[in-house]
Each structure stands twice: as structure tokens, then as C-alpha cells.
Prior knowledge:
The protein is mainly alpha-helical and 165 residues long. 72% of the residues lie in helices and 0% in strands. The protein contains 8 helices and no strands.
Amino acid sequence: MFLINESKTLRAIAAGNTAALRQLYEKYGKEMYKYALSIVKNHQSAEDIVHDSFVCIMEKANTYNGGKEKNWIMRIVHNVSIDYIKCASREISSEHIPSSKNKEDRFYDIIHSIPDTIDRQIIILRIDAGYKIKEIAELLEVSPNAVSKRYRRILKKLENVLKNT
């Protein structure tokens, strides 16, 4: 149970409330990790990105101007992930993730095989995190129409992959 109202969490963090930061981590940490992983395709890098994102959240919490807290946080994860990739002198390759009998693990294996970073982000945000098309469009700074078209195209590709496995 969260002690601080969602609309006040970032203000509490800006004021130095570590309990609010802990609550934010409990609420969004796993989702932040999955999103970062969908971008960099490396477990350790995704963990580093989540850590760096929380540092950024602490530093910038006082600049939060309202709107959906979750979108603001995920935009930070997105930006930190992109900065991480830009700073790398070579392309980040994915860790070898052994195939698993678990359906959820198999789903992630297939998702991480998608070569286009934006496509991976769209499918993770839509299916795994439950974002709406409009929210994904805002987060990725593209039109909802573009997200919708890409999403349908990705689903068709995933359907073909699943049929062939």
C-alpha cells in the first residue's frame, strides 16, 4: 500500500523524502527495467539505466509540471537509455538468453529478437506495460497513427514467428 498520493510523490521526492523514492521504485521499478531492457537488450545495462533514471528523478523531481507521473518517469528511462546507447562506442549486443520452456520467457526471447528498437519499445509498452496507443505515442514522440500501424505490423510478424516455432 502506498502512503503518499501519486500526485504528491514527485513533490515529496523533490523535498528529499526517501520513503517516497522507495515507493516510486516499488511501483515502477520492474516496469522501468523491462522498458530499458527492451531498448538496450542487455540485463546489466538495463539495471544501470534504472539506477541512473532514479538519480535523474531525484535531481529533476522539482521540475515535474504535472501530467501523468508514469509517462514522465518512463520518458526519463527512455532518455537515459538513448543516452546510454549514444555513449557506447559500439552497438550494444544482447546477452545470450537461453530458450526456456516458460511461455513468458519465450515471449521475451521473441520480443528481444525484434531488430528495430522502436518496435520493441512499442510491443513492450503495449502488451507488457499496458500503455494505450496515445500514451506510447506521447512517450516516443511520434503520432498515434504511426504507433498503431507499427503495432499491427509487429503483431503480424510475431504471429508468423509463433506459427514457425
